[in-house]
Amino acid sequence: PAPLCQAHRRPTQHHHPFLIIGLRPAGHFSCVCGSIMSEKTVLCFGDSNTWGQVPGSQDRYPYGVRWPGRLQALLGEEYRVVEDGLSGRTTLHDDVTGPADGAYSCNGRPQLNTALHAHKPLHAVVLFLGVNDLKQPGVSPGRVAYANQILVQDIRRAAVGKDGQPPRIVLVAPVAVVETPTNLAWGFGGTAGPSREVPAALQQTAAAVGVGCFDLSQQAVASPLDGVHIDANGHAALASGIAGILKTPA
What we know:
The chain is of the alpha/beta class. It has 8 helices and 7 strands; from the N terminus they run αβββααβαβαβααβα. It has helices at 17-20, 48-51, 67-75, 108-119, 141-158, 181-185, 192-209, 232-246; strands at 28-30, 36-38, 40-46, 79-85, 124-128, 168-173, 212-215. The chain has a 5-stranded parallel beta sheet with strand order 4-3-5-6-7, sandwiched between helices. It is globular and about 50 Å long. The two termini are 24 Å apart.
């Protein structure tokens, strides 16, 4: 059913000029009465699993299969889901072993700040980062969690929520890496064990700083085709989990 504004709980015959010509302002949606209401924008910021890489290939899942697209369908017209996924992206490291090969930066921290201001005001930010951090020398699961905490602090300081308030924040704990010849070539050697410890570290950090956390490792596994990326079922599970969190009052 079409969403209703606060002033109207049943359809009326009133119309808004934007509806008459079939348009609506960006960042808004329409009540059945014709009034224009602000959308709740959700920024999904992550790596290749947010970009939607098909396991075992360089292809990309269609929008309706990728978890941000599925999330949009689950949340409905009241929300606008923005996907910002980049292959090889880390929390705050320069990934020297990543797929960019110098073509672009994999450091998520400065990119996140740009994305926050590009899409504000934001209702929520979902961070799905950390696996690529483990490729960096000396990065432990605890350091992955701490790096996510730094990004949480950056988001709060940016004050990009409604009326300058911080948006809601949800961390995603990734699936464990399964070492394969494919991901060994991507620099994931030695990351399988540490990756299994990341979810607990992220959950502890999320609780400490007062943000949400969805443990994807309890709902999905990395595809055996490359041992890093989730399949279509994994995308569906992630979208469902995030939708459940966002629909629950903070």
